[in-house]
Amino acid sequence: MHAASLESAVAPRATHAANIVVTRGLTKQFGSLTALDGVDFTVPRGEICGLLGPNGAGKSTLIRLLLGYLRPTAGEARIDGLDCYTQSPAVHARTAYLPGDARLFAQMRGSDVLKFFAGLRDAGYADRAAGLAGRLDLDLTRHTAAMSTGMRQKLALAAVLAVDAPLLVLDEPTANLDPTVRGEVLSLVREARDAGRTVLFSSHVLDEVETACDRVVVLRRGRFVHLQDMHHLRRQHRIRMRWQGPPPEPPRTSAELLADPPEIRLDGNDLVIIAPGPLAPLLGWLATLPADEVRIEPVGLAAVYEQFHSPDSAPADSTT
Amino acid sequence: MTTVLLTDAHATLPRMKGPLPRALLWKAWNDARWLLAALVVLNVVFQVIYVWLASQVQLGALSLFVRALPASFEKFVGFPLEVFTTPTGRMAMAYVHPVTTSAAAAWAIARGSDCVSGEIGRGTMEMLLAQPVRRWSVIVTHALITTAGAVLLATLAWVGTWLGIRGMGYQDQVLASSFLPSALNLFGFIFFLAAVSTLVSAFGSDRRRTIGIMCGFYLVQLLFRLVSGPVAWLWWLEYFSFFGAYWPELLSVHPNTAWTEVLKYDGALIGFGLLAYAGAIVQFNRRDLPAPL
Fold first, then answer.
1. Partners of A242 in the beta sheet?
2. For the structural domain made of A235-309, what CATH number should be given?
3. A9-231 sits in which CATH class?
4. ipTM over the 0.85 cut-off
5. Model confidence, pTM
6. Which one of A117-121, A179-183, B82-86, B288-292 scores highest in mean pLDDT?
7. Contact state of B132 with A121 under an 8 Å Cβ cutoff
C-alpha cells in the first residue's frame, strides 16, 4: 500500500480540522539524496504518535520540516492549518520542540535558561518550568556548562514541557536519562496527552514507544512504510508451541473467529499462531490441540519493526 | 510527585511576543558583556598610555626634516607625515594603532561570527528557533547589542584620550574635542566589520570558519590600502578597501574639514554595513538550518 493511502485507511474519521499535523507530498532532497520522499501524514489531535525508523530513515528531516528549519523541496507541511515554513514563528507558538541532542546556552545557569525561554513565551511559563524542574530533581543554580549530559537533558525537558502549546515534538526525549527519570518523562508525556495535547514522539527505544504511543509510524529510506494502531497491536498475541505434522485449520467456533481468523504458520518444529483479537475465543480451541511447550506472548512492536527493518526485509507499505 | 503540571493547551493558546523580544536582547547582552568589558578597559587604558607616550616625543627641529621627506615616502608609510609634526596628530595615531584596530576588529568579528554560525555550531540555534521568534529578530537584536558595544568602544576610546590629555596637563595645547571625529570614524569601522561578519556568519554553520574568512578579509583589505598608496597604477584599490574610509589620524589634524569628512567616511561604512545586515537577514531567512554536528 502506498503511503498516500495509509492515511485514509487508518484515520478515516479524521478530518483536516481534527488533525493538528498534516503533510502532503512532503519531500526534501539534499543534493542527490532524497531524505524524505512524498510523505502524506496526519496526526490527529490528542494522541501520542510515535516515529520509528533507523538512522537515516527520515525522522529528523520530517521533524525539521515541521518546525520550518528546512524548506521543503516539494509538498507542504501544516500545523494547526499554518504553513510550517512560511509561518514558522506562529507554528512555534503552537509547538514545543525538544531536539534529539538538546544543547543549551553554556554561559547561563539553569534558572537563566528557563528565565530566557519564559521571556519568549506566555506569562505562566516560568512557574510551570520551575515546577517541572523540581519534579525532575534538577539543580537550577548550576551553569549549563557544568551540568552532566543527563542534567542538561532534564533542563531541556523542563524548558520544553513547560510550554503551554497544543503540540509537543519530542526527539529522543529520554536519551541520557536514568530509568527513574525515564519513567517520569513518560508520565509527563502521557499527562500532556491527557490534558488534550498532541505529542509527536521520536525514539529508538521500542518499549518506550510501545508504552507511550497511540499510533506509530514506521519510516524507511525517507518513506512511510507502516502505520500501526497501538491499541490494536496491544490486543494481538503470538502463541508458539511444539508441533508435529501439518498446521491445523483455523477454528470456526465463533463469529469473532470467523470474522477475524488467526494467522497460522509453521516455523521449523514450532507452530506459530497470531491472534489478532481477544484471546478468550481461541483458548478452548487451543486446549484441543496436541501441542507441547505452549507459550503465549504479546506480539509487541519489535516484531512489527523487524518486518520493515531486519536486514532481509523488503515488505510493501502497510497499515495495521 | 505526580501533580499534573501540564494544563489544557486548548484553553490558552500561546501568543507571540513582539518583534524584538526583550529576552533576545538580554541573551545577546549576556553573551557579549565580558568581552565588551575587557575591550572597554583595554581601550581606555591604551588611549591614556598612548597619549602619555605621544607627549614624550618632542620633535623640535626634526619636524622640519619630517616635513621635508618626499611624497613617495608618505605613500609608502600610508599616511601624511604632517600628522607627526603636531601633538594632536601624534596622539591621534592611537586610533590607527594595531591595539585599537585589533580591539575593534575583535569585537566586530567575535560578535558578528557568533550571530548565526556560532549558534548553529554550538547547537543552540535549534532551541532558540523553536521559540516563537522571527529569524530576522535574532539578527536584529544581536546587531543592536553589537552596535551599542561599538558606540561604547568608540566613546570610551575618546574618553581615554580625554583622560590622557587631562592627566598629562596638555589641555592647553590639545583640544580633546579634536578627537571626536576620529572616535566616530572608529565607530563606523566597527559597525561595518561587524555587519560583514554577520553576513558571512549567516551563510555558515561553523564559527571558526567565519572567523577565518573574516581575518582573511581584514588582511586583504589592509593589503589593498597598503599597496594602493605606493603603487601608482593600483590607486583604485583604495576604493575596494574599507580602510579607505578610515582616516582618524587625518580627521584630528584637519579640524575644519573633519566633520564633513567623517560624515562621508562613516556614511560609506554605515551604508555598506546596513546593506551587509540586510543581506544577512535575507540569507538567514531563506537558508536551511542544519542539524548540529
1. A270, A292
2. 3.30.70
3. alpha beta
4. no
5. 0.84
6. A117-121
7. yes
